Amino acid sequence: MLEKIQLSALYEISKTLSSNLDYEKSVKYITNILRNFFNYENVFITYVDPNTHQLKVFGNTLPKDIKYKRGEGVIGKVWKYGVAIVVPDISKEKEFLNKLNRKLDESSKKKISFIAVPIKSGNRVIGVLAVDKPLDKKESLDEHTKFLTMVSALLGHTIKLFNQFNKEKEKLEKDKEYLQSQIKNIISKTGIDKIIGRSKKLLEIIEIIKDVAPTSATVLLIGESGVGKEVFAKAIHENSTRKDKPFIKINCAAIPEELLESELFGYEKGAFTGATSTKKGKFELANGGTIFLDEIGDMPLLLQSKLLRVLQEKEIERLGGTKPIKIDVRIVAATNKDLEKMVIEGTFREDLYYRLNVISVYIPPLRERKEDIPPLVYYFLEKFNKEYGKNLKITDELMEVLINYDWPGNVRQLQNTLERMVILAKGEYLTPENLPTDIKRQIKIPKESKDTPIKVGKKIVELPKTVEQLEREAIIKALEETNYVIKKAAEKLGMTPRQVRYRIEKYKIPLKK
């Protein structure tokens, strides 16, 4: 009968240990199993506390913070000598410390036996399994001791695996944090503030900006809504000789046509009803600096002719004014429309188009430069963590979803999404479950393997191992730039030569001689 109960208990214990990575939760289940199957009055498991190097006890119905020193009491001796100890009657054992404050009245009819067996990892004792068993002359204490020894062997093996898992997890977390910091350091060094990324297309744009910024040439920025045209316009200004002068921006689509002219060129007192004083327009306010005309394609034709005069004559006239005002303003314009098509249709002046299009820069949408998504995510995550007093991290699964999503709203949508997720997040990590509902409806969130394909629209895309790819590419780039001198490449990457050599072998990077 006892053997049958023992087999059933071992099955339940094995099932518990194999299905739960939370060790302390597993221990609570096991103590319940042992108490329910064998009517043990107390079941407790001790393990070596890594901080105090004492045996810390946990289990059911126990006072908190019970600890044993090595060699102290029966449990301490089991820990010290690594052998099982059986006390047939604890009321007669002088070395029994009774830290549970049991009633040990020798006159009591109820006698309690105590069995303690070591939990080992290899030859090292890492804990003790102990039980209080009501003394029953019909049952052999040896049989219970043998059974508890089997349970302790299962616990020892599980604790060993659990510790290895935790060490590996901790190492991976540290490696991931280090890698993320290196990625941010490497790929964010575009040389221009707030322009984050490392894609070839973005780096080409940055080179154009660096070349054109010191000049006074008019620049036309072309790209979809949300790609960051204003950021690029500001970068042109801040890398020019006008950086200490005003940077004035105006959205031509956001201001009604009847007000846009006065906003751009200003007005004289009495120019119209309500003009009680003279007001400078945006061009005057930007004198000596840069004016950014966003959504230039929405500017009315009448104002287009006046803007053409500004470009040709370098002067403006306020509404109601009679004297031209000389100005020195650099114009950077932006549009998400096809201006060439508008010229053919007659909705945009051809002569103005060619005046604006001295240097045109096409900023591709985020879906065409997915390499820029991870650094942008880290940048926004760090920004919003600081802003909202949080310390959130991002899972690989979420990063893969973010990379494979098309982002119709481009960088602006990505930024807004990250901000929303950080504000509403409750846990320590951001996962695909934290995504806004509208995005989750458009994608298939992976539930298991990180190599699960994600459905984006009608396409199925295999998920890349983004962090590893980025690190490999960063190392290859550093090696190429230093003529494959590992020491110099390591300095460039902020790593040690040993770390670089390890990753060269890990990623099978060929070295050119």
Overview of this protein structure:
With 513 residues, this protein is of the alpha/beta class. The chain folds into four domains: 161 residues, Beta-Lactamase (2-Layer Sandwich); 164 residues, P-loop containing nucleotide triphosphate hydrolases (Rossmann fold), CATH 3.40.50.300; 97 residues, Helicase, Ruva Protein, domain 3 (Orthogonal Bundle); 39 residues, Arc Repressor Mutant, subunit A (Orthogonal Bundle). It is built from 18 helices and 19 strands. The strands form six sheets. A six-stranded antiparallel sheet has the order 3-2-1-6-5-4. Strands 8-11-14-7-15 form a five-stranded parallel sheet. Helix 1 packs parallel to helix 4 and helix 9 crosses helix 11. The protein is elongated. The relative contact order is 0.07.
CATH superfamily of the largest domain: P-loop containing nucleotide triphosphate hydrolases
Q: Low-confidence segments, ≥5 residues, pLDDT <50?
A: 447-466
Average pLDDT works out at 83
The total count of strands amounts to 19
- Helix/strand/pairing category: alpha/beta
Number of helices: 18
The rounded Rg comes to 36 Å
* N-to-C span: 75 Å
What's the overall geometry? elongated
Q: How many structurally independent domains?
A: 4
Fraction of residues in H or I helices:
40-55%
CATH architecture of the largest domain: 3-Layer(aba) Sandwich
Strand content: 15-25%
Major sheet strand order: 3-2-1-6-5-4
